[in-house]
TrEMBL record:
Keyword check for rRNA-binding: no
The protein, known as: GntR family transcriptional regulator
Highest taxon above the source species: Bacteria
Signal peptide residue numbers: none
Species name: Pseudomonas laurylsulfativorans
InterPro entries: GntR_C (IPR011711), TF_FadR/GntR_C (IPR008920), Tscrpt_reg_HTH_GntR (IPR000524), WH-like_DNA-bd_sf (IPR036388), WH_DNA-bd_sf (IPR036390)
Keyword Thylakoid among UniProt keywords: no
Length: 236
């Protein structure tokens, strides 16, 4: 019988981890491995295996897994424990409809409160996106650009929900952006959105954001409904 590969085999731990840093180190290490695909969708992460890998007790492991679950990167499944969450699939329209509601409100609240440094940082992310060809990095920069514009929204719970949605999109884009042929598509949208934010025009910003996200719905839905993806997802 062929033995299944261990999803944790790609993770290297350098030396003992100080107790006060254990939770954050485990969380960030696992988060990076999930985002870059070293730990694939559907992989079960068992607390004792992780405790042995990192050389710690199960308590910081449990805390790290809770944080990753809150970021929508893990699901808790009966009899399997923590399982790496799937990428965006056939519910892309519903996912983006919710994102439009949440992100529009975050942007509406944030724009009047944005500082010059927030706008300068957002502009830097656009510049980096222009020259970036690594799809992993494109997904990360896209998330950071949007969060830079939402960051002054005073409702922290809203921001948490928004960031969870962007984390989910980042994972999807990392593995599908090249196949979708998106690349530079959203840059004009990003630049227009930044100009509206610089003018402190919240309503224009929200309209541009809605247009931008609806464009994403169209492209992703077309991609997911395409013959290659359908064939890949059809049970053999």
């Amino acid at each position: 019988m062929t033995q299944k590969p261990n999803p944790l085999s790609s993770i290297k731990v350098n030396g003992p981890i100080p107790a006060h840093l254990a939770r954050s180190v485990i969380e960030e290490t696992l988060r990076s491995a999930i985002l870059d695909g070293r730990i694939p969708c559907g992989a079960a992460l068992r607390q004792q295996d992780l405790a042995d890998l990192f050389g710690v007790s199960r308590m910081p492991v449990r805390e790290a897994l809770r944080q990753l679950e809150a970021q929508s990167l893990l699901n808790v499944v009966a009899h399997k424990g923590a399982v790496v969450a799937p990428l965006v699939q056939g519910d892309a329209v519903e996912t983006y409809a919710l994102r439009i509601l949440l992100e529009s409100e975050a942007l509406r609240l944030s724009v009047p409160l944005l500082q010059d440094e927030d706008l300068e940082q957002a502009a830097r992310y656009i510049d980096e996106l222009e020259t970036q060809s690594d799809y992993t990095e494109i997904g990360r920069l896209n998330r950071l650009f949007h969060m830079a514009l939402y960051s002054r929204a005073p409702n922290r719970r809203l921001l948490k929900l928004v960031e969870d949605g962007l984390n989910e999109e980042e994972r999807f884009l990392r593995f599908n952006l090249e196949a979708m042929g998106l690349g530079k598509l959203s840059q004009a949208d990003h630049q227009a959105l930044l100009r509206a934010a610089e003018d402190r025009d919240a309503e224009r910003s929200v309209k541009l954001l809605e247009h931008h996200l609806n464009r994403g719905v169209e492209v992703i839905t077309r991609y997911l409904n395409g013959p290659e993806v359908q064939a890949k997802n059809t049970p053999k």
